[in-house]
Amino acid sequence: MLLHDVVVGKRDFQKFRGVIENGLFDDIIRLSKKLRNKRVLYINSNQNRGGVYEHLTSLVPLLRDLHIKIDWKAITEVPADFYEVTKLLYNGIQGIEHNFTLKEWKIYEDFNKRIAKEIEDDPWDFVLVQDHQMLGSSMQMNKKSRIKWIWQSHSETHNPTKSLIKQLQKYLEPYEGIIFYFPEYVIPGLNSRRLTTSSIAIDPLSAKNKTISIDEAKQVVKRFGIDLGRPFITQVSRIDSWKDFPGVVDAWLLAKKQIPQLQLVLIGAVSLNNIHAKAIIELIEKKAMGEKDLHLLVNQVERKDIKAFQTASNIVIQKSLREGFGLTVSEALWSGTPVIGGNVGGIKHQIVNGKCGYLVGSIEECYRRIVELIQNPNKAQEMGQFGREYIRKNFLLPRLMRDELKLMVELMN
Ligand code: UDP
Q: I want to staple 140 with a disulfide (CB 3.0 to 4.6 A). Which of 16, 116, 215, 405 is the partner?
């Protein structure tokens, strides 16, 4: 078996009353009633955790609480050759050219055929495929299957090559619904499909995002050896080249020339056999050789403790070079901390430049903004407060729940 059930706890949707607008709350109740007892399967690749995992951890139990029969299955281990092809595909969607060979597409399709086999015997009403790893499974299904397929893209689509677009169109052919984060991400040539744009968003009531006091946050951070008597900045990400950890180190080293006491915390999650990540870690260590104020915490910080860093940091950095959304940005702003982020993808939508942090396009710009905010704590605080309100209005999970439910109800009709 490739797909395994992911176990999640229970949630109570009623707790959102008062947190979100009443109209949105009522919409969700109304739509969910129409889907009562429908069987819905979410599938994703779970290897590096990351944003999609976070999203489903909240969404799945909330939808169950609304009496929709939800299952969530993930692939936990994949053959190395399939992993390499999906990595190329992930990069290709984001603009890194690669001439895919027939052999590579065969590896991809063979794996997806096995996924389809595991799905087709169950009477699902909807299957929601997350991201590109299993996008190709739908076309491998038995033609008699009555399942309605929805694809939810989580990447920044950035000028993929024409041949890659053609291939994606082929895989997307059997999908009845497609969700992109933002209008500029929509892959061309999909006019006949039911398209929705709605970005991922954070769950303000989850254990991960629940507000904690600054004192509680400091207690946690201290355990990891951070000196609370000095300022510190943090980036939290999967260790992937698009997250630009080496660029963060460079910006910090420059900022440190003006603020020698500044500490840098890098929190990274990675699977142990990932050679790309190993190379990035080596590069970080080389750049920071001889520096004692870098706290490189790889696979050391549990999910429940991330919030403490996002709350207690002077600034959160998310210096990505490409970013589908960047949940860490919303998480940090919701924690009242200003964010300096790469001027790309979903980060552009979350940071109002100059209001809740800064959008930066280079190491130079990043370091200047770090220095500015560390030297102006009042400004940093105001930005954090603005950011929290901005996220409340725009990037909380129920908005995406409503859009997904609406799409399923439309497809049912
Ligand atoms: N995350 C985590 N531990 C880590 C690194 C990341 O819990 O060591 C979480 C992070 O808080 C966020 C998610 O993983 O909720 C990453 O999502 P994001 O959208 O920022 O990036 P993605 O991994 O989806 O590209």
A: 116
Residues 190 and 242 in one domain: no
Whether 237 and 268 have beta carbons less than 8 Å apart is answered as: yes
Put residue 28 in one of left, alpha, beta given phi > 0 → left and psi -120 to 50 → alpha: alpha
Instruction: Report CA 140 to chain centroid distance, whole Å.
Output: 27
Residues 6+ apart with CB under 8 A from 166: none
Q: Which domain holds residue 265?
A: 214-394
- Do the domain assignments include residue 291? yes
Total number of domains in the chain: 2
Q: Tell whether 372 and 249 lie within a shared domain.
A: yes
> In this predicted model, what pLDDT tens digit does every residue of 254-309 receive, in sequence order?
999 999 999 999 999 887 778 899 999 999 999 999 898 999 999 999 989 999 99
CB–CB of 201/399 below 8 Å?
yes
Instruction: Tell me the pTM.
Output: 0.91
125 CB under 6 A from ligand 1?
Answer: no
Q: How far is the CA of 325 from the centre of ligand 1 (A)?
A: 11
User: Which ligand 1 atom is nearest residue 200's CA?
Assistant: 19
Which is it for strands 177-180 and 194-197: parallel, antiparallel or unpaired?
Answer: parallel
Q: Are residues 114 and 73 in the same domain?
A: yes
Please name every residue paired with 202 in a beta bridge, in sequence order, or none if there are none.
396
* CATH number, domain containing residue 155: 3.40.50.2000
Residue 269 to residues 50, 298, 306, 315: CA-CA distances in angstroms? 8, 6, 11, 20
Beta bridge partners of 126: 40, 148
Ligand 1 in reach of 345 Cβ (< 6 A): no
Model confidence pLDDT, tens digit, residues 134-144: 999 999 998 88
Per DSSP, the three-state class of 361 is coil
The number of the ligand 1 atom at minimal distance from the alpha carbon of 48 is 23
Report CA(329)–ligand 1 centroid distance (Å): 10
For the Cβ of 328 lying below 6 angstroms from any atom of ligand 1, the answer is yes
**Closest-lying ligand 1 atom to the alpha carbon of residue 238:** 5
Strands 263-269 and 232-238: parallel
The H or E element that residue 264 is part of is: strand 263-269
* Residue 382 within any structural domain of the chain: yes
